TrEMBL record:
This is Heavy metal-binding domain-containing protein. Belongs to the UPF0145 family. InterPro entries: UPF0145_dom_sf (IPR035439), UPF0145_YbjQ-like (IPR002765). It holds the Pfam family YbjQ_1. It comes from Nocardioides panacihumi.
Length: 276
């Protein structure tokens, strides 16, 4: 799904238009703290406004075999697609404001009372635009990524400032997800483990495999952005209402790339204490 395909509600379009052209022009909204706001400004970016994307999604049903470790692909696809819809709509709002990127992105999920299989996925962040004469950017540099989209980042204002000062630019928030069914132990195996310190190989293998799938998908997204690496990676285990032996592993981080091809990070100076 591309930004052009994102469906922005009419009320949101009116809000964005008023921020660009109407009575609220020059007034911005932001979920950044005061310290983060000042550091983002110090980094050469000015906030344009709070942008968000939402998707209320029905998560389908898929059953796993009782005794088998396996990914539940229907659920993995649902969780991934719903987050992508929310992210793309947030990016579309930023694009409508003429933003170069979105900082302080938060991705949240809320299961609703009107159905245990219905959840709202929400993406929220502050759209920003680089100063015309940005001191760190090479001549002709575009802060948008190689897909032509505003960059997205979940880094704090402090980390965002530090990243730019070190000569790197954010490209996009990359993520990977895997919903996995962990096999039950057979009766005699569970009975034999009672009272003993012993590894349960099938559990270890299941969790290891699920994390690897989530991490690999996050890395694949970073490769699409032609990134040098991913910083601030979080690997979360998210229990949902699918049963005690089913869990989601979610990997998320900010893909980055050096501002200059010949970029190197200066080595810190070692200061030795004076001897008596």
């Amino acid at each position: 799904m591309t930004i052009a395909d994102a469906a922005i509600p009419r009320d949101a379009i009116n809000r964005l238009n008023s921020m660009r052209e109407g009575e609220h022009r020059g007034l911005f909204t932001s979920d950044l703290s005061v310290n983060e706001f000042l550091l983002v400004r110090e980094a050469g970016f000015r906030p344009l406004g709070l942008v968000l994307g939402s998707s209320v999604y029905h998560v389908g049903l898929q059953l796993g075999r009782w005794s088998k470790n396996q990914e539940l692909t229907t659920l993995s696809e649902a969780m991934y697609h719903a987050r992508e819809l929310a992210m793309t709509r947030m990016e579309a709002e930023a694009d409508a404001l003429g933003a170069d990127g979105i900082v302080g992105v938060r991705l949240e999920i809320e299961f609703k009372e009107f159905g245990e299989s219905i959840a709202e996925f929400i993406a929220v962040g502050t759209a920003v635009k680089a100063d015309a004469e940005h001191p760190l950017a090479p001549t002709g540099h575009s802060w948008r990524n190689n897909l032509g989209q505003p960059f997205t980042s979940d880094l704090s204002g402090q980390d965002f400032w530090t990243l730019l000062q070190a000569g790197y630019a954010p490209l996009g928030l990359t993520m990977g997800t895997c919903v996995y069914h962990i096999a039950h132990q057979r009766f005699w195996q569970a009975l034999g483990n009672m009272g003993a310190n012993v590894e349960i190989p099938q559990f270890t293998e299941a969790l290891y495999d699920a994390r690897e799938l989530a991490m690999g998908r996050m890395q694949a997204e970073a490769e699409r952005l032609d990134a040098d690496g991913i910083v601030g990676v979080q690997l979360r285990s998210l229990p949902h209402g699918w049963g005690g032996h089913t869990t989601e592993f979610f990997a998320i981080g900010t893909a980055i790339r050096a501002l200059r091809e010949d970029h190197t990070i200066a080595k810190p100076t070692l200061v030795l204490p004076l001897s008596d």
